[in-house]
Write a structure and sequence with these properties.
The complex is a heterodimer of chains A (344) and B (116). With 344 residues, chain A is mainly alpha-helical. Chain A has helices at 2-14, 19-36, 43-53, 56-63, 73-109, 113-148, 153-158, 178-199, 222-249, 254-277, 283-297, 306-341; strands at residues 207-208, 214-215. A three-stranded antiparallel β-sheet of chain B has the order 1-3-2. The interface between A and B is medium-sized, with 17 and 18 residues.
Amino acid sequence: MESNLIDRYVYEVIRRIPEKEREDVSRELKSNIYDMLSDNPDEKEIESILVSLGSPAALADKYRQNPGYLISPRVYYEYVRVLKWLVPLIGVIVMLVGIGIGIAESLSENAEMKDVFKEIFQNAISFGISGAIQAAIWTTIGFVIADRSGYNAEAQDNEWSIDQLPEETPNAKYRINLSDSIVELTMTLIFSILFILFCLGSFPNWFIIKTGETEVRNLFNEAFINMAVPATIVSALFGTLDCSIKIWKRQWTPLVCIVSVVNSLVSMSISLVLILRTWVFSDEFMAFVNNELVENLDFSLWGNNFIISALVIVCIVIVISTLIGCGNNVYKTIKAREAKAGGA
Amino acid sequence: MPENEYLQSLVTELRRGSLTLAVLGSMDRPHYGYALLQILKDRNIDIEANTLYPLLRRLENQGLLASDWDVGESRPRKYYSLSDKGKYFYGELKIEWKKMSDSLNSIIGKDDINGE
């Protein structure tokens, strides 16, 4: 019974080490353990000796020769850096491919507009996510292979020369925060997709009629929906381009500024066109609101065009905030160039 | 981590470097694992069994030690001895150790003069 404890302990150690070493380690470890015990040890003594040796897992760890990590600390930072830009980039590219495929397929099938967009966006999400995951996995595998096959980080360190210093030091004040850009990109894509699905009726968009019945009606006008969906796509593409440039350059350079301003103006124009040219809301909703407000709340001052007035106000707010945003970005870019020229 | 733990980890770091030298230096004749453990403990080298045994294997894998199973005794035991490469390395490590301890002693000695 006593040797059973020792056998069990040694087995727990050797099962965690490479197969070709097991027999030798087992033999040696048992021999060492018996040396540490008296001639006729009782169970208590055996237990205390095994406990003093520590957990089998820890002991096996010491016997193992291999590194015990996937990616070595020296290249870990590089690895994370690559992940940060590569995974969103591939995800977006693959997503666009998915959209393209979706469009091509539905064109050939001659499906209804609504179904077309649904198909496209399901494609977009699934392609995008699997693209991002693939990018992460292959980057990891690439780094693991490089690490194991002797990409010698230390040799690179030793060969470092002054020529390798980059030309300019980025100015901290005019950096664009990477996580901000990534979050903005993600939010843009998520909200665009959600808005489109919402328009297409994937989510319930009803309003309650005062009489207490819950009727399913369309919130938005048919014409609006047909324009809104492509418009959102275009807007999302520009937004993606904007965020991608920001992630790539990470500074307010003139290029980044131009792209950003273009993106803002495109979004603004699209929003304005949608709101002003087409009726946003459906006839039923308009009738409902006008009845409610005019009858019950005496908004007759606004006339029957309460909604229109509200929309005009929204448009003005959009224009003003867009121009302020553009102005701010241009200002930052100018300041950044001044700082660079002044050698700050 | 709490102060005690941190101090302990620094002490362990300090000791870890000198273990190989201690093991190589105790190999005036062949020894088996447990006997070596006793020898080191007698010389006040604080080393655990679960550190020494894997270390012996590693030094053997790197060619500094040679091993031999002695099946003559009541129980078979694996005896380790210094290889030629091990003798050479031991010589080199001794020189390095002397240099290091002279430098450190001059630094620590200065503190003593200052009354630290």
